[in-house]
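Example record

One chain of 333 residues, shown exactly as stored in the release files.
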Amino acid sequence: MLIHIFHPLFFFTLILGIFLSVSSPTWLAAWVGLELNLLSFIPIIAIKKNSFSSEASLKYFLIQALGSAAIIASASLMLYMPMNVNLLIELALLLKMGAAPFHFWFPQVMEGLDWISAIVLMTIQKIAPMVLISYTLNNIFNQKFLIFFALVSSLVGGIGGVNQTMLRKLIAFSSINHMSWMLLSMSLSEMYWLYYFIFYSFISSSVGMLFFFQQAFHISHLSHASFSSPMKILCFICLLSLGGLPPFIGFLPKWLIIQQLSMNLQFLPLAIMLFAALITLYYYLRIIISSLTLNSSNFSWSLSHNTNKKIFLPIMFTFNFSSLLIIPSMLFF
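Predicted structure tokens for this chain:
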């Protein structure tokens, strides 16, 4: 009960930790912000008071503590080998963020979370590490290193989600794949990754909220009778948008990055990223086909009278189709 009372306070200190990290002048201050963020997120994870959330909070704490220790150790070596410190800090931040090949904890933690905490982990908790990684790209070697990890993350995120039937693990591998696009775009421009992150946050939050409304945790849950046809159609739209399929809004940030990679003649990274994106699109389509074919006789066009659904559904639908207006305007201007 006490955790529920202080729940808004934990969210406030979580956001405060992010602002402290991204605006800090030193790595020590950034570390303090990351620790404040960590200590605020742990009670949010453990709010359910069951074995799954307890296990997830413990795993998350241990991994984040390891990453924080690596940041402190790297900062202490700054006077002795300044050229290599940024690379070590970059590795620690990739670990804290769950990028491949340091991704093994991320799907396991996601599996123990409720959908609201999972949305926070996929979106808000990525802000501070991503911004701090952008501070480490002060030489070409670190940029090439980041591109390598981006390509690994794209393949791991694509291949890892193929055999998943649990929705939270599947969305976790999807997040790893999208993380690769953000990391790759960071090596191109300081603003591209921010654009991608904003679009990704809205789309993934839409998918997570739809699953939260229906309490869907397995692919088979999407064919349940309570999952009405309007909700299914909107879920399909959000998943296709998350996969970057035109004309949905998720295609727009990927199109910008593809265009920039083509202009820079980086065709090999582009080919790898597109290949991994096609794999992720495959398991999004697998979700859609499974929910259509399994127990399809339970389709119903009735929508329950829930105020939250009535508010969110039009917003999600409008946002995912807004690219129909944005893309033509970009072509002319």
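Notes: Residues 219 and 287 are 6 Å apart (CA to CA).
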